[in-house]
Amino acid sequence: MSEARYDVVIVGAGIAGSIVAKELTRAGKNVLLLEAGVSTDMTWDGYQSSLATFYTDLGKDPEAPYPDNPNAPQPDVDDIGKPNGAGYFIEIGAQPYGSTYVRRAGGTTLHWLGTCPRMLPEDFAIQRLYSVGRDWPISYDELERDYQFAEMEIGVSADVEEQAFLGIHFPPGYVYPMRKIPQSFSDHTLGAGVNGMEVDLGGTKRQLYVRSSPQGRNSIPNPSYVSPRGEKGYTPVGAVDPGAEGQRYAKDLGQRCAGNTNCIPICPIQAKYNALKTLMSADRARLEIRTKSVASKINVDPASGRVTSIEYKAYADPASPEHEVRRATGTFYVLAAHAVENAKLMLASGVAPTSGQVGCNLMDHPVLLKWGLMPVDVGSYRGPLSTSGIEDLRGGPFRAHHSALRGEIGNDGWNWPTGAPMSTALQGINQLNLFGRALRDYIAGIVPRQFRIAFLVEQLASSTNRVTIDPQWVDALGNYRPVIQYNIDDYSLAGMAVANRVCNAMFQRTGIEDWTNPDNGLHTVVEFDGERFAWGGAGHFAGTHIMGSSPRNSVVDSFQRTWDHDNLYAVGGGSMPTVATSNPTLTLAALSFRTARELVRRLQ
Amino acid sequence: MTLPRGIHNLDDLRDYLDAAVQLELSVIPPYMCAFYSIMPDANEVCQQIFRSVIVEEMLHLINAANTLNAAGGRPALTGAAVPRYPALLPDGETGFVVHLDPFSPEAVETFLKIEYPSRPHAAAPRLAIERPERAPVPLKLMSLGHDTVGAFYEEIIAGIHRLVAELGEAAVFTGDPAKQITSAYYYAGGGAPVPVYGEADAVRAINEIIDQGEGLPHNLFDNDGDLGHFFRFDQIQRERRYQKGDKADQPTGAPLPVDYARVYPMLRDPRLDDFPDGELRRGAGAFNAVFSGLLVKLQDAFDGDPERLIPAVGLMLQMKYQAVELLKNPIPGTPFHAGPTFEWKE
After folding, report:
1. Strands A210-212 and A204-207: what pairing?
2. Across the 604 residues of chain A, what is the mean pLDDT of every consecutive 10-residue run?
3. Cα–Cα distance between B188 and B209 in angstroms, integer?
4. CA distance, residue A533 to nearest chain B CA (Å)
5. Under DSSP, is residue B266 helix (H, G, I), strand (E, B) or coil?
6. Alpha-carbon distance A340 to A483, whole Å?
């Protein structure tokens, strides 16, 4: 079957693939985008149907609005820690990998939190500075302008004055597209206790400060905003809304965050960025999107090493494995299918073999969760899920000895660690035998005071934390399922022990009654350095096709081009040699702009 | 209160714009009653239509207030300026009465009359089905005798041009520029509010109101590709969607099934004293307190403190929850449910 030849074939319609597709089509290039899953959320009615699915789902976990598709299966938080076979991941390591992602158009931005911190300049050079981990082949300064593009595309709300810390810098006069999202009353209550608290990390003294987080949620546009393209002003992008018969009832919806406290798993008004906002603003005349098309093999010309086509399995019905194998051809190929899926596809095709690093260096942010009751009602379960963080421990000489850490302050009570407020009601009924008025009083006395902080600690790249494939584990279409070998080393555990001590001091100063129970069965329990705590995953996949300075030690170069194949790029969190302490989406979005610009240049 | 027809001087212009502000304010509660009375999982498209129209009416309110402020007047949103229902529209249309009604064929009929186009593509006139239970409360400018909202606004535009030609632009637009509401503080469908500093801005602000309401003269869809309010409602009555290229009265898009049974049967034009003492009256009172608090914040914003619009958003969400609580509950001894009464509370 002969097919049109495209300038670029992209695999995956998440944020990385959507940015590359938008930038290329707007530069006049023809793009074919292959998406393994469905495209339900690409229309207003479809997005609303996902919302309806979420409303009727009893679990309310991150996957609740996005049911599993056996032809493009995805991990589910319900499956974490269960025996192999039940869930999508096959776990063969010492610890379960505690994070999930979404396989459908829009990708995991459909249920991401939306926090958009830049990495610290030192995060790009931790080997040189602290003799741990790996270094990037580019510096913060080389990526700075692409951070601006990413902040424009996502629509980030923050105040520059608050975000310039630990070396993070902006060009003179820079402002974020939108003003910062107001911090919650809970944030202010914590700040009153904690601001100025001194922490000593092996001789590095730091004062803690409850700082507003940059967020991919719509706020008040900054009138003095100038985009990196020189365009003045910013218009918040509301709901994705190519409605029936061309009518758009919803595009005005979501132009400001309304604090629905439901960022994960689904923003009911699309005030939080999702990648479909980017995809739908590509030049659609130059973009062909093929959904329900699972890339299964990359074909390479052995003589030249160039990729000649990507094979994909096209199915009509997620409930049936019936499919057809087709081929997509282009001048360039971009894998943007997610860190795990990119690695799987490369391993299944035997591409980029020189470094032996494909699939290796899988990282996440192991998360230490602490929870308790505030001394006063703080209005838990209101506002965006998180509006502030503790950023002051993200960098410094202590990184030679233990991981850096970032505190994410929740507005969602004990939902993450315990499943509250449902669990609060169940406890009142089942453990305390309460009913009627007494039950109501119990719930009303606890729920508005519930407080949670999550400390995300750095995990270093390690070749023994990896994604592999095994012919005995395949999905409904015969594609490989990811076999994951994962463990947390002492470097991260030492950081978590520090986080545990810092949290205890923060709780004490604020008057928070500690209710943390590491043994509640939801997370992995560890004892380290005299501290006992539980940790889980943050959903921050990184590594698997890391970038570096040489084909011997890395899979891709600084443009995310595979060293082994001149026309094959692998983009996304998989390229990051350090995950450091920042939520990775903003950085991988910046890298996507860098790659798109390089592709446009090479196509001229 | 009656005034002679026509805009002859600055005071006339301010009176007309004052009526425009009240007109935009007076259509929002009836649309909200229809919207919130629909059961949560029913008539999704109708809910979207109402929501999209309501946010644009709010934008129109801002545009009208911006124009009035620019012309040296002061928009009034509190106390005696708060509309009471049943009402006759303040642009002087006398052919129909506006009620607070639940979503029903009668309510849709009234909404079509409110948004009735004045432009050449006008549909055939419709007959009113009126069941006034209380005497309609006359709002401002009763003697103007306009047939449509559009004609009322066209007269304002003509008046602005005439006064600017006579007096000069600077003599007409004497208002404090700091009182203009910009897109930083207000956002809604069909674009941003138009800050008014002179003649051209004023005409743009008023035209935005006309175009969103009625569609463009030769197209049902406006410049942003949005269907005019009249035709959005017309789809409900005809139970079929319009699509690009359709003629007025002849939608050819997908069917739009409407289920009037999945609606809380709200009492027409409810007032606080329709409810017995207890939870319902307390709930309605609480709603009115929030509604009035919202109007105070809007008033402050129009008086030069636009930051007050930020907490106003939270109040709007609160209003919805409180309205739905009332709508879900029957009034004891009647076949009707309670509903928001939209009464001013000091």
Report:
1. unpaired
2. 79 98 98 97 91 89 93 91 87 90 97 97 98 97 98 98 97 97 97 97 95 97 95 92 70 86 94 97 95 98 97 97 97 98 98 97 96 97 96 98 98 93 94 96 96 97 96 96 96 96 97 93 86 90 97 97 98 98 98 98 96
3. 13
4. 38
5. strand
6. 10
Chain A residues with CB inside 8 Å of B221's CB? 246
Residue with tokens 């991990």: A75
Rg (CA), chain A: 23
Domain B10-263 has CATH 3.30.2020.30: no
Q: Which single residue is written with the structure tokens 């987080």?
A: A213
Work out the angle at residue A533's Cα, subtended by the Cα atoms of residues A531 and A537, and round it to the nearest 5 degrees. Answer: 135
Cα angle vertex A410, ends A408, A413, to 5°? 150
Contacting A with CB below 8 Å, chain B residues are 41, 44-45, 48-49, 51-52, 55-56, 182-185, 187-190, 192, 221, 225-227, 241-244, 253-254, 310, 313-314, 317
Span between the terminal Cα atoms of chain B, in Å:
23
List alpha helices for A91-139, DSSP H.
126-130
Closest alpha carbon within chain A to B40: A52
Domain boundaries, chain B: 10-263
Contacts of A185 in chain B (CB under 8 A): none
Q: Which helix (H) or strand (E) holds A51?
A: helix A44-56
Neighbours of A252 (CB within 10 A): 21
Q: Nearest 5°: phi and psi at B88?
A: -105, 135
Q: Which domains does chain A have, with CATH numbers?
A: 5-603 (3.50.50.60)
Beta bridge partners of A34: A11, A290
In this complex, which of B49, B187, B227 lies closest to A236 when CB atoms are compared? B187
Nearest-angstrom CA–CA distance, A530 and A575: 35
What are B306's two structure tokens? 């636009």
**Residue carrying structure tokens 């025996």:** A83
Quick check: B317 and A244 CB within 8 A?
no
Residue whose token pair is 């004055």:
A161
Q: Which residue has the tokens 């939520």?
A: A583
Question: What's the token pair of residue B4?
Answer: 């002679």
Which of B60, B226, B232, B236 should be substituted to probe chain A, the one whose Cβ sees the most A Cβ atoms within 10 Å? Answer: B226
Q: How far apart are CA A445 and CA A442, in angstroms?
A: 5
Alpha helices (H) along A93-207: 126-130, 140-154, 160-163, 185-194
Residue B209's alpha-carbon distances to A491, B28, B30, B248, in angstroms, are: 62, 14, 18, 20
Helical pair B105-114 and B10-37, crossing angle rounded to 10 deg:
160
Contacts of B310 in chain A (CB under 8 A): 220
The tens digit of pLDDT for each residue in B290-325 reads 999 999 999 999 999 988 887 887 788 889 999 999
d(CA A155, CA A237): 8
Instruction: Identify which of A247, A248, A255 has the shortest CB distance to residue B241.
Output: A247
Q: Do A248 and B225 touch (CB under 8 A)?
A: yes
Which residues in chain B belong to E strands, given as ranges? Answer: 87-88, 137-138
B51/A246 touch (CB, cutoff 8 Å), yes or no:
no
pTM of the model: 0.88
Radius of gyration for chain B, computed over Cα atoms and rounded to the nearest angstrom: 19
What letters, b where the CB count within 10 A reaches 16 and e where it falls short, cover A467-480? bbbeeebebbbebb
Beta-carbon separation of B313 and A252 below 8 A: no
Sheet containing strand A483-485, edge to edge, reads: A90-91, A483-485, A466-468
Q: Rounded CA gap, A206 and A200, in Å? A: 6
Structure tokens that stand for A455 in this block: 């400390």
